[in-house]
Amino acid sequence: MLDMGMTIGGLQVAGQESFAVMNPATGEVIGSVANASLDELDRAVSAAKAAYPAWSALPYAERQKTLNALADAMEARAGELAELLTRENGKPLAGIGSHFELGGAVAWTRYTAALEMPVKVLQDNEEGRVELHRKSLGVVGSILPWNWPVIIAIWHIMPALLAGNTVVVKPSPFTPLSTMLAVQIMNQILPAGVLNVVTSDDQGASIGAAMAQHPDIRKIVFTGSTATGEKVMQGAATTMKRLTLELGGNDAGIVLPDVDPKAIAEGLFWGAFINTGQTCAAMKRVYVHEDVHDAVVAELVNVAKNMPMGNGMDEGVLMGPLTTPFQHEKVARLVESAAQVGTVQLGGKSGEGQFHETTIVTDLPDDHPLVTEEQFGPAVPVMRYRDIEDALERANASDAGLGGSIWTNDMDKAKSLALRMEAGSVWINKHGALQPNAPFGGVKKSGIGVEFGDEGLMENTDIQVILQ
Ligand code: NAD
Questions:
Q1: What angle, rounded to 10 degrees, do the helices at 261-273 and 293-305 form?
Q2: Which candidate in 2, 47, 58, 249 could, as Cys together with 31 as Cys, close a disulfide (CB 3.0–4.6 Å)?
Q3: Catalytic site residue from 40, 88, 246, 299
Q4: pLDDT digits over 185-235, tens only?
Q5: Which domain holds residue 352?
Q6: In a mutational test of the pocket of ligand 1, which residue from 101, 217, 228, 402 has the highest number of ligand atoms less than 8 Å from its CB?
Q7: Which UniProt keywords are listed (predicted)?
């Protein structure tokens, strides 16, 4: 069993207390990690604050070089990190699983390292010169969810460091191990205090809440549920922290009547069931034109019924368990209720432990909780529509606005419909594919701000204008 300490000021800190981490595929306890006190959080923030002046004073190109070294170091230990990730999160090693996540983390780091942050000259004439500078903030606090614990940590950490900030990261209590190991690996390269990790079981004092309120943290980047995001925003108000909030989604996919059901079935499947459905930008509701509805459902069921689910360490497995007992309970409850009203086309039952069968339900009313709530698991509702205007209205009838998708061979129509979707990203003939050069974030209650690309990097800075 692993016994992991926090990394504070470059040192391993065991903490006064600890808590257990479980393998969701087997129920085994696989690790024990430190349960931080508020004092230990303060120590981590102080270490980051102390490291800030030297780190932010480095030439930008030096930090770019350091990020590339971090990518190399993670790449060298990607196999070990991936196995740990599978054991604590449940996602398979293969397919769109742990190796994929580690590959993405390395690629994202390298892409971020190449971003530039030039001074922008807004005016330069006989009346004067106006320059827009980007300044680092200080200590950035990163709060992570459990669904993609390594790559989301990288999304938070890398642009923050590149811009000249130092970081305190807090992983989810369900999946702290892979993030802690990644931070340890990076600390072999980074100066002490530049990157720290604190862990908490969320049972006592909420370390996340204390981070949101902490006077020496200048920005919070938070990925998690909308309910917790609201608390972070409230907690951050008195210190006027900068915020990037990546919150929950209830993404709709709209399938037009001209599609070839067989050709899109695999794309639809992975759009909805990536990471066993536990992905913010997974397709959580599908609206299919009545002309192709039955054929699309049949092809989707065909793909889904052959997708092997099991312990992610086993060869050939492509779907895993729910990562947390709460999430398992939620999916089971939503599916059980949906089965009483709609038609279960596949699955419908809870499996052993934290497993749940891959489930496809049709004929549900729009106000059923499997349609209106974020299920975050291996269950998707497919709804019928006749008129595209009606489909669009139903797709937009949600507080969430993270992603959306249009499935058709008519690109002009796809683009005009995409522009009318209330979502931060809209994909055409795919869903949920993130890339490091495309800013990603939600509208409505799915969040504030974006990550990735120049726009994401700039969220780790304040603007200073020099006018002469
Ligand atoms: P969560 O909100 O339960 O927890 C997220 C983090 O917040 C954890 O580290 C938790 O310990 C911490 N936390 C708990 N209470 C807190 C408080 N009062 N103040 C500050 N932090 C606190 O979310 P989760 O269940 O870990 O993740 C699943 C959710 O995350 C889903 O809703 C999903 O859509 C969302 N998500 C969004 C994105 C995105 O980019 N938009 C990406 C991944 C996941």
A1: 60
A2: 2
A3: 246
A4: 999 999 999 999 999 998 876 899 999 999 999 999 999 999 999 999 999
A5: 251-435
A6: 228
A7: Oxidoreductase
